[in-house]
UniProtKB/TrEMBL annotation, chain A:
Keyword Transport: yes
Originating gene: ATG10
Entry keyword Transport: yes
GO CC list: cytosol
Protein name per UniProt: Ubiquitin-like-conjugating enzyme ATG10
Automatic annotation (TrEMBL), chain B:
Coiled coil: none
Protein name: Autophagy protein 5
Signal sequence extent: 1-17
UniProt cross-references to InterPro entries, sorted A to Z: Atg5 (IPR007239), ATG5_HBR (IPR048940), Atg5_HR (IPR042526), ATG5_UblA (IPR048939), Atg5_UblA_dom_sf (IPR042527), ATG5_UblB (IPR048318)
Domain Autophagy protein ATG5 UblB, residue spans: 106-191
Key words of the record: Autophagy, Cytoplasm, Isopeptide bond, Membrane, Signal, Ubl conjugation
Species for this entry: Nomascus leucogenys
Description of how the protein assembles with itself and partners: Forms a conjugate with ATG12. Part of the minor complex composed of 4 sets of ATG12-ATG5 and ATG16L1 (400 kDa); this complex interacts with ATG3 leading to disruption of ATG7 interaction and promotion of ATG8-like proteins lipidation. Forms an 800-kDa complex composed of ATG12-ATG5 and ATG16L2. The ATG12-ATG5 conjugate interacts with RAB33A; this interaction is bridged by ATG16L1 and promotes ATG12-ATG5-ATG16L1 complex recruitment to phagophores. Interacts with TECPR1; the interaction is direct and does not take place when ATG16L1 is associated with the ATG5-ATG12 conjugate. Conjugated with ATG12.
GO cellular component, one term: phagophore assembly site membrane
Length: 220, 197
């Protein structure tokens, strides 16, 4: 029964490869990054998000002092629309970087992430806790230190925020058991990421779920 | 970086005379390189998180999850207040294993080298081989860090250090895990170049 609950590292890598294949089809920019010694690696995605002034107001004058928005290739803004610039200047663009790694201790995937403003200033753990969606806030407040903490990235060695993996089996086991019952193929990464991602602002387009069942049909 | 101070010493300054002189900085915190330490709660959370991970490896988390919150608190308070007996009253349970087994499920260890980009090596490794033989420290290194193993007839290139000493490579890993782990229940192993004096 143990095999139902945990996934091995090879299975993890296989599901990541399938996940990335679909990501490439829909232009979702997930990619695989091997470690320097190539013995393992992780999935990585970067996206940009605007936080409105009210959420970040506790940061003070520096945010409102900005009159022009730093330009990043991936972020497009209609520059000739003055009204839009003025609104955006009072906001902040935040760069989120998400990494999916494999934990051999818990034998499950783990979500690492970091966030910074475009000038490189990182968000603090407090900023991250405050940014968690309302519907997950209660759970977070029950045990913030058990949920999202700052840790050393096991491959890069830099500080990242981590969503604790110790409860992963609790919610993944029913998903896996049910998929076996109805004889349906499930991509572990898709299911897992669709559950944990939204807690930290990462959402998956629905087409990922459909992609898995299509693969199944092709296999037949 | 939230590492035990003894590990930092072994890894970075083992040839220094004691007391170890360090420089404390109050400006220019290197955000990209170091974890913040906002409060005592953060340290407790990090310590307990390592404990839980170690037990996930040793006992599939069964022993630590069966404990009550007050037992977890006792581990932390025992460490914080340097109360050996208080700490070990609970920690001894994390060092037990079923009578029918010869050791833990997997050994919690991390191998550190300053020469690699990866901060540490951590992999699944069983203390007992299929034939019942106990794996040794040498077996572990050969399997997960072969570059650190000195050739048999060659010169000794590296020191394999735990708590400032070099255990014999023939030492059973299970024994090391029970007796030479750090309070977080991990074996933190440093591989450093052999000093050339």
């Amino acid at each position: 029964m143990e095999e139902d609950e945990f996934i091995g590292e090879k299975t993890f890598q296989r599901h990541c490869a399938e996940f990335i294949k679909h990501s490439q089809q829909i232009g979702d920019s997930w990619e695989w990054r091997p470690s320097k010694d190539c013995s393992d690696g992780y999935m990585c995605k970067i996206h940009f998000q605007i936080k409105n002034g009210s959420v970040m107001s506790h940061l003070g004058a520096s945010t409102h002092g900005q009159t022009c928005l730093p330009m990043e290739e991936a972020f497009e803004l209609p520059l000739d629309d003055c009204e839009v610039i003025e609104t955006a200047a009072a906001s902040e663009v935040i760069k989120y970087e998400y990494h999916v790694l494999y934990s051999c201790s818990y034998q499950v995937p783990v979500l690492y992430f970091r966030a910074s403003f475009l000038d490189g200033r990182p968000l603090t753990l407090k900023d991250i806790w405050e940014g968690v969606h309302e519907c997950y806030k209660t759970r977070l407040l029950q045990g913030p230190w058990d949920t999202i903490t700052q840790q050393e990235h096991p491959i890069l060695g830099q500080p990242f925020f981590v969503l604790h993996p110790c409860k992963t089996n609790e919610f993944m086991t029913p998903v896996l058991k049910n998929s076996q019952k109805i004889n349906k193929n499930v991509n572990y990464i898709t299911s897992w990421l669709s559950i944990v991602g939204p807690v930290v602002g990462l959402n998956l387009p629905l087409s990922y779920a459909k992609a898995t069942s299509q693969d199944e049909r092709n296999v037949d | 970086m939230h590492y035990p101070i003894g590990l930092l010493f072994d890894l970075l300054a083992s040839s220094s005379a004691l007391p170890w002189n360090i420089t404390v900085h109050f400006k220019s915190f290197p955000e990209k390189d170091l974890l913040h330490c906002p409060s005592k709660d953060a340290i407790e959370a990090h310590f307990m998180s390592c404990m839980k991970e170690a037990d996930a490896l040793k006992h599939k988390s069964q022993v630590i999850n069966e404990m009550q919150k007050k037992d977890h608190k006792q581990l932390w308070m025992g460490l914080q207040n340097d109360r050996f007996d208080q700490f070990w009253a609970i920690n001894r349970k994390l060092m037990e294993y079923p009578a029918e087994e010869n050791g833990f499920r997997y050994i919690p260890f991390r191998i550190y080298q300053t020469t690699t980009e990866r901060p540490f090596i951590q992999k699944l490794f069983r203390p007992v081989a299929a034939d019942g033989q106990l794996h040794t420290l040498g077996d572990l290194l050969k399997e997960v860090c072969p570059s650190a193993v000195d050739p048999e007839d060659g010169e000794k290139k590296n020191q394999v250090m735990i708590h400032g000493i070099e255990p014999m490579l023939e030492t059973p890993l299970q024994w090391l895990s029970e007796h030479l782990s750090y309070p977080d229940n991990f074996l933190h192993i440093s591989i450093i170049p052999q000093p050339t004096d």
